[in-house]
Amino acid sequence: MQENLLFEDEKKKEHRFSLGSGLVLELAGGRGKQAKTLTLFKQGVMVKRIEQSNRTEKRFFVVDAVGLGAEKSGLADALAISRQTIDNWLKTKEHFGSEGLAQGYNVGSSRSRRKQREIHKETLDCGNKVALIAEIMARERQERDDKQQKIDFSYAETQKNVPPIMPEEQPFAEEHGWEKTRYAGVFIYLMSLVKQWNWLSLVMSHFGGAYQIFMVFVMMAAANIGSIEQLKNIRSREAGIVLGIRRIAGRTTIWEWFYSVAHLGFSQFLLADYFRYQIRTGLVGLWLWFYDGHLLPYTGKHHVRSAYNTQRRMPVPGRTNMVACDSSGRVVDFEIQEGRGDLRAHIVASGKKWSDIIQFQPVRVFDREGSGNEFFADLVREKVPFVTWEKHADADKLAALDAALFTQEFSLNDKQYGVFEEEKTVAVDSQPDAELTLRRIYVWNKTSKRRASGLAWTGNMEMSAQECAHAILSRWGASENTFKHLKDRHPFHYHPGFKLVESDSQEIANPEIKKKTSLIAAIKNELQRLYKKLAKSKVATKKDGRPRENSVREKLEETIAVQESALAEAQEEKKLLPERVDVSGLENYKSIRRVDNEGKNLFDFVTSSVWNARKQMVDWLRPHFAEENELVDLFYAITNCHGWIRSTKTEVMVRLEPLQQPRRRQAQEMLCRKLTNLGARTPAGKWLSVEVGEEPTTDVQKI
C-alpha cells in the first residue's frame, strides 16, 4: 500500500511543470497531448482550468499563461507543441485580436468562408494567418536589427559636438588570444545591457570616447566595489579586458574620466533617454508602479537641508531619492530631490512625464506618506489609478469586523490572507460641494492575525479587491524590498565627486516663531503653577471680616493677571510673524547649500542598469533551477566565476569556469546559451558570446 502511494505521488509530480514567475501547470489524464485537463496555478492558487479537447480555449489558455510570465519553452515542453506555434498564437492575438485567435488559422472563417471573405475583403486581412504572422515577425526582426545598429535617441539628434570615436578606441577593439581573468562573470551583465537596453550605443551617443568611465562603473556595481578608491584592489588588466577597455587606469586617471563627463551636465538627458527606451520596449512593467523615497545621507560640514530617516525616526542632513519600481522590482524611474522631497508631486509629475508613450496609466502604489484627500482628488482629476494603505485606520473597528466578511482568500509569501471591500466617501477641502468615492480594501493576515485597510481608485480599470490587496502587500508586506537588496548587493549609497552649490531655496522656518512658541509654553506652565497655588490659598480677612491687604492670595492674583497679559501679548506677536524667512536677512545664519546630483545621477544610471539586467537574467535562469530561495545566490555565483576571454576581428568570447554541482552547472550553461543566442554586438559590430567549459587547450596568455 505504501509503495502504491509513493508511486501515485511520483506520478503526480511528473504531471506538474514549473513555468517560472510562480506559475505551475498541472496535467490530468496523461502527459502532453494525452492530457485531458490543463490547470494553471499562480503561487499555489488556481488561475484557470480547461479541457484540452477544446482547441479555442487551449489557445487562450496558452496566451494568458505567457501574459502572466510563463516561459514559452516550458509551455511547449509540457503541452508537446512547438515554440513557433506559441509565437504564432501570441502574434495572432496581438494583430488580429481575440476574434482572430478564436477563429483559428484562417481569417474570416465561418460556415460560408467565401461569403465571409467577400463581406470583409476591404477591412480584414484574409488568408492563412500563419503566413501573415511570418511576414509580420520577419519585418519586426528586421526592425530590431536596424535599431541595434543605429538607435536614434532624442538627445543624440541635437548633440552634434560629441567627438567621433577612433577605431582603436572602440569597446573590445584590442585583438588577443585567450587570457585568464578572475572577472569573467561580469561579462554577462554587458551582454544583456548591450542587446536588451542598447546600453553602449546610448552611452556613446552622449559621451563619445568617454564611455570608459561607465564601463568602470559597471565593474563597481557588478562586483560591489564601494568607491573609486577601492579599485586599487582589483587586477587592472584582468578587469580591463572583460570591460573592453584594455586596462583599468589608475585612480588619478579615473577621476579625470569622471570629471570629464560630469562637467558636461548631460545626466538628465541620459536618464530621460534610458527610461524612455526601457518603457517603450517593454523592459519594465506597465501595470503596477511602486513609489518610495530612499534616504541619501550627508555627513559633511556644510549646512544642507534635512531628509527623514525612517529607521531612526528623525530628520538628518541629506537628500531623498524618489524611485519608481515595477511589480518585479525593476527600476522604472528615479529622481533625486533636495531634503525630504515631495513624494506626492513626484507621483503626479511622473504620470505627465511619460503620458506621450504610455497609452494606459499604470496603477500607482505608495505607502502612507502619500495619504491625503487633496492628493487623492488630484490623482482622480488626472485619471491616475492608485492603491495605498489607509492612514489612521481604527484598529478596534478592524478587529471587530466579522470574519465571515473576508470572503476572498489568497496566499502570498507563505502567508494566508482574506480580503473584502466597501466604498468610502471622503470630503475634499478644495471642493466643498463635491465628495470623493474611493474603494476601501480590508486585509486580514490570518497567519499573523493582523488586520489593515487600504484605499484605491481604479477608474474604469477592472481590478479586483484581491489584486488591490496583493499590490499593497507586494512591497510593504513580507516581500522583497528593492532598496534593501540594492544596498546589500550594489554600492547604491555611493556618490562620486561631491560638489556643493547654493540652494535655490534659502527660506527656512522663522526662528522667531520657535522662540515665541517656547516663551508661550513657559508662560502657560507658570500660569498652571500659579492657578494651583491660588486654589490652595485661603482668603485672609481682618477681625471685622474685610479682606486683608497685601495677602498671599491678593499677590497671587496680581501675578496671574500680569502673566495672562504677557501670554496674550506673546500670542498676538506670534500671529504677526511670517512663517518662513530668507536666511540672508538673518544674523549668524549660514546660507543653505545643495549637493549637486550630476555625479550621483551618472553612477545611479549604471547601478539601475545593472540591477535591471540582473532581474532580467534571474528570470531567464528560473526555469532551469527549481530552488527558488537559492536562485539569486546562484546568479551571483555565476557572475563571480573566473574564466578566460578571447577577442578576434569579429567576436569576443568568454569561457566561464563550470560550477561544481551538476544541477547548478546545468543552469549556468543554459543561461550562457540564452545570452549567446541574443546575438549581442558591440557598436563596431563584434559579436559577444559566453560559454561554460574547462581551460582552453590553446596556450593561455598569463597575466
The total beta strand count reads: 24
How many separate domains make up the residues? 4
Radius of gyration: 33 Å
- Spatial gap, N to C terminus: 64 Å
- Uncertain runs are 1-12, 105-111, 120-127, 147-158
What is the helical fraction, as a range of percent? 40-55%
Estimate the mean pLDDT confidence. Answer: 81
Largest sheet: 10 strands, mixed
Walkthrough of the structure:
It is built from 23 helices and 24 strands. By secondary structure, it is α+β, with helices and mostly antiparallel strands. The two termini are 64 Å apart. Residues 1-12, 105-111, 120-127 and 147-158 have low confidence and may be disordered.
Question: SSE layout and pairings?
Answer:
Elements: H1 2-14, E1 16-20, E2 23-28, E3 37-42, E4 45-51, H2 55-67, H3 72-79, H4 83-103, E5 106-107, H5 113-120, E6 127-128, H6 129-149, H7 154-158, E7 176-181, H8 187-196, H9 199-207, H10 212-223, H11 236-243, H12 251-262, H13 267-280, E8 288-297, E9 306-309, E10 314-326, E11 331-338, H14 343-353, E12 363-366, H15 373-381, E13 386-389, H16 395-400, E14 408-412, E15 415-428, E16 431-445, E17 450-457, H17 465-476, H18 482-489, E18 500-502, E19 507-509, H19 511-536, H20 552-576, E20 580-582, E21 593-595, H21 598-621, H22 631-639, E22 643-647, E23 651-656, H23 662-677, E24 687-692
Parallel strand pairs: 8-12, 12-13, 23-24
Antiparallel strand pairs: 1-2, 2-3, 3-4, 5-6, 7-22, 8-10, 9-10, 10-11, 13-17, 14-15, 15-16, 16-17, 18-21, 19-20, 22-23
